[in-house]
Amino acid sequence: MTAVIDRSSSVEPYPVRSRGYRRITAALFIAGVTTFGSMYSTQAVLPEFTRYFGVSPATSALAMSLTTGMLALTIIPASALSARFGRTRVMTISAVSAAVIGILIPLSPTIEVVLTLRAFQGVALAGVPAVAMAYLAEEVDRASLGQAMGRYIAGTTVGALIGRLLASSMLDVTSWRWALEVAALVAAFSAIVMIRMLPPSRMFLPQRTTPATVARGVASHLKNPAMLSLFVLSFLLMGGFVSVYNFLGYRLLADPFRLTATLAGLVFLFYLSGTVSSPKAGKLSDRFGQRRILLGAVAIMACGILLTLPDYMPTLLTGVAIFTVGFFGAHSVASSWVSNLAASNRAEASSLYLFSYYLGSSLLGGSAGLVYMSAGWPGMVAYVGTLVAAGLLVVMVTLRPRNRGLSAPVSTFSAG
Description:
By secondary structure, the protein is mostly helical. The chain has 16 helices and no strands. It has one domain (about 20-410): Up-down Bundle (Growth Hormone, Chain: A). α4 (about 60-85) packs across α7 (about 125-140). The protein is globular, with a radius of gyration of 20 Å. About 60% of the residues are buried. This is Major facilitator superfamily MFS_1.
């Protein structure tokens, strides 16, 4: 149940190092674990779908693209519901329903049933990422928002890592069904922990929402050039990131590497580098400004993807690690920047960012299957490199310091 407190009271957002700040960031860390564990455990078994159901890699990849695509389509409605019924209530319903569907997916008799349930799971999952950014922006002191957002994103990296590793580590000893079932049960347990830890909203005021009010809120953000640039950036970078991890397993299982499924799955340990880089990048952006750190993070992604090109394990692994560090650093900075730009309609702002983010995952990540099938890993490097280069251009050209407040640290940030 969401507690509602009048803003005219003496209640203030949680400052860094306060007990409330620690509790809210810990709860959202767990929220990231349960949501992204549910979402990404399937990525580890995509090659198994190809083998078991006799479908192409591009068809198997739909198990990811449909989830993220449906999440993208429902994330704005989920945000609107949270504005009416409360942030914590929507996050709770979302986490529980996604966990239940995750437990049912391993029972699927055909690939069509898998894909249908994954699409429904995308709808169910939308409530947590749609609301978490707005919830943090309301409850946490503005000067600490970048660091707090980084902690939430760190939780998403841990969740994605746990889901993938649990599934991939079991493939050599059992079927994909049991691999996904165990990952789903862990996500369900995490959802329970999140619900128990999640503090009630203190700064939230319910709003009467209609399609017209939501449309006005969305339109107001789309008219902001800086905000629009960040949406485009999230579309490009997430599309490139998910493309790499969707098909990296196929490369590691094939010549010249020929790894087992368990060993190939260990590459997901590089998500831990994102766990470190997310809060670090957020903290640096609070201190030195978003644009400077964002430029550096996207440039790091570009260096990382180029290093994955040779058929040489040390450079491949180094490149994946660097690429992952850059991506999560960029995501942490960009997402907190969106929350700071939004003086009003914050839920719509964060939902638009995540709509672009998951739409990139669905469309660009899905298209990558065709690239990989026709041009192999060199084609994938060219494809992802083009997306990252376009993202770098967006930051350099459209997010210029002359735009008021764009390079200022969060504590002095102008939301014009």
